[in-house]
Fold this sequence. Notes:
alpha/beta; Rossmann fold; 39% helix
Amino acid sequence: MADRRKKAAGHAIALLGLAWSLSVLAAGCRYSFTGGSVPPHLKTIAIPIIQDQSGFGDPRLKDQLTDQLVSLFRGDNTLQLADRANADAVLDAVVTRVSDDPLVVNPGELVSERRITVAVHVTLTDQKQRRKMWEKDFNQWGDYPSGGGPTQRDAGIQEAVKKLTEDILNETVAGW
């Protein structure tokens, strides 16, 4: 009986020691388990028209990117859209590069599939605290069959735009 009490007391002391150790660690560590959310002081975001400095030559690209990004933020509903003057945060983006390269080359050097890659430089600025929150380059691609003309290429661009805007949204609302 005495042996059983000694074991129980030993376990109790071990548990108390473990609890004490965890409380010391928790007190010294300011880690939050609420990660992945926007800082609470940010409620609104402005998304100005994306600039295109790529030299790609398709004037629709910046509008496609802007429209898709606005649509995703509206659907996500984490941050409400606002104009630049009244927004808590501003998301500025610039298309820096667009490349259209062969992806699959068949015998006889015939290109059967192409990959269009779009690179965008994005900056998120906290206007309330007047500081840059993050700055990042995003690259995404879309594949399309060669020889299909502009319609097929547009499908490749749309695929790249969809991936890019999803990446930008995720970085903005969950990259904390």
